[in-house]
User: What shape does this take?
Amino acid sequence: MLGFQLSEEQKAIQKVAHEFAEKEIRPLAAEYDEEEKFPQGFVEKAFQAGLTYLYVPEEYGGQGMDFLTACLVNEELAWGCCGFATILGANSLGITPILVAGSEEQKRKYLNDLTSRPSLAAMALTEPEAGSDAGAVKSTAVRQGDFYVLNGTKCFISNGGIADLTTVFASTDREAGTRGLSCFIVPKDTPGISGGKKEKKMGVRASVTSEVILDNCRVPAENLVGEENRGFKIAMMTLDKARVSVASNSVGIARAAFEAAVDYAKQRVQFGRPIAEFQAIQFMLADIATDIEAGRLMYMKAAWLETQGLPFTLESAMCKAFCSDMAMRVTTDVVQIFGGYGYMRDYPVEKYMRDAKINQIWDGTNQIQRVVISRAILS
Amino acid sequence: MNMVVCVKRVPDTAESEVHIDASGKDIDKSKLSFGINEADNYAVEEAIQIKERLGGTVNVISVGGKDSDEQIRMALAKGGDEAIRIEDPAMAGSDGFAIAKALAAAIKGMEFDIVFTGALADDDGSAVVGVALAELLGVNHAAYVKKVEILEDGKKIKVGRELEGGLMEFLEMELPAVLTIQTGINEPRYASFKGIKQAAKKEIAIKSLSDLGLDASEVGEAGSWAVLEKFTPPVVGEMAEILTGEPEETAAKLAAILKEKGLV
Ligand SMILES: Cc1cc2nc3c(=O)[nH]c(=O)nc-3n(C[C@H](O)[C@H](O)[C@H](O)COP(=O)(O)OP(=O)(O)OC[C@H]3O[C@@H](n4cnc5c(N)ncnc54)[C@H](O)[C@@H]3O)c2cc1C
Ligand SMILES: Cc1cc2nc3c(=O)[nH]c(=O)nc-3n(C[C@H](O)[C@H](O)[C@H](O)COP(=O)(O)OP(=O)(O)OC[C@H]3O[C@@H](n4cnc5c(N)ncnc54)[C@H](O)[C@@H]3O)c2cc1C
Assistant: This one.
């Protein structure tokens, strides 16, 4: 059985998300990119519109979307601005460890709280010396009575330092590498957690990326997510989902660039006719449209597998690498179609190109995705 | 407050190229996207806000084909309670008056305090339906409403109407009444996924002309006062003076004209 028809409900929420992106995100995108500032008030708007914590079940106060529907919404938000979408995307990333491995009590306590108000969440895995190699995490968590004491520095954390809740990965057994990682829920008011250096970035500049510093941060033992030393599995399950979101995000950026290119190519006249009449431009647009179609089908398939409870690690890695490489190619070509104007900040397409780049890097670089894919096909 | 909101599905022509189709009586809509008429979106919000404050019901009505269910369901997702869609092949070619007749026939049997319509449809833009509907229902009306205040007893309302130049005119009137809503009266909400799922389970009552006790001759072209003959694109240049020459020259001419007419 094969069907590509979205349900009426999916089409309706897709339309809502599109309208939200068009009215609440697009008009602000250029300004917040240029000034690299966090859009205060945006999270509240998204909260009121029902566009936060998309795939958290209704019983924990979330929107209760299946994962595919959430990805469709994410594509629209990224179509509006990848930086704004990242703020909400990092929220989902931040709570996913709790969703996939948290206890019923943790879900009730923390998810219900976050979903009941305009809030921010973050997931802190990466460290200066542990990027692709997550097993090299140096931050430690040492059990002391009813507490774990966390020490270390996390870097490049989206919503870092401003999140109401951070899920932190730290080592409970330094010798054991990936088998010594554990995951902790760290609310903002926990003594010893703070934001450090705020990064200046190439793209997604409306989103905050910051160090998170853990300085004798005392976390109640009941905030351990899942079992001690099983954190790596939780991180991987979290990233499986995040990668499909990144893919849908990439499709959103590519689509925005494509639409701009079609409009521009019809209007820009050189040699006495619109550049859309030159076959070189037509073929670029044809390839772009084809690429976007392929990318969307890939992320939808991966997200669908998740909704069916089927394994999707391989498809997740494939769609993440494919869609983000695709969006990079597409946005580069779209700048080309715009010529010199595309290079200028008067048009949004150079921003699309800067934004697209991050999707090849985060949530596992595309090289790491290829490691995942090749392991699966050679094992 | 028992309220009725009339919503129309319209093509989005704001950012698309519009071409007249082969019949010459319509535009080619095959590549256009559709949505709720903008003013109707505000009308839906106004009704739902009143319901949230004072209780009551919101009944959504549209004249149109199955596609219009999309707009009806969106209104239900935001908080509408019930819905009716009037569909009949004989409705084709109806003007605003004929549309109002069909709406009036559906609304007449209901207990209502306020009927909301949009002030103007984005496609045909006649601003007729709401006012004609009030006349057919034999109730008070106010058009281009940008403020609604329910007075204490719930039997009267105070409305602000937007006049030329941004002036507001305030009137008090007895209910029931028809209000045609102007855009900007409120901030329309976004439908939530939960609302959308609930709306999907609600039934939309489909009514034909005979269900409404209307005869085919009362609607469509036969029952209309206005019949559309043809569309023509605006003729370029007839009303406009086209300035020619080098940019410096044309800019100077333009500045002179603007000055002469007292526009700067
Ligand atoms: C804007 C931004 C936001 C981020 N948000 C978060 C967040 O919210 N939470 C979080 O935990 N992290 C976050 N990160 C971190 C991100 O996930 C890492 O940057 C990423 O995993 C890569 O790690 P690295 O930067 O240390 O690169 P490195 O791992 O040093 O990689 C350098 C290069 O070597 C390649 N490489 C490394 N190992 C291999 C290998 N085995 N085979 C082949 N090639 C290899 C990589 O592909 C890359 O090209 C964010 C990063 C950025 C830039
Ligand atoms: C000032 C003025 C001058 C006019 N002049 C002429 C003229 O010179 N010649 C002539 O022939 N006609 C004229 N008309 C009439 C006009 O052409 C028709 O009445 C027209 O077809 C009305 O339809 P509309 O969709 O534009 O509705 P509008 O009246 O613009 O719509 C207003 C509201 O009515 C409701 N509504 C409309 N359609 C539906 C629907 N299908 N289902 C549910 N609710 C609906 C919506 O709430 C909508 O927001 C004039 C009207 C006005 C007000």
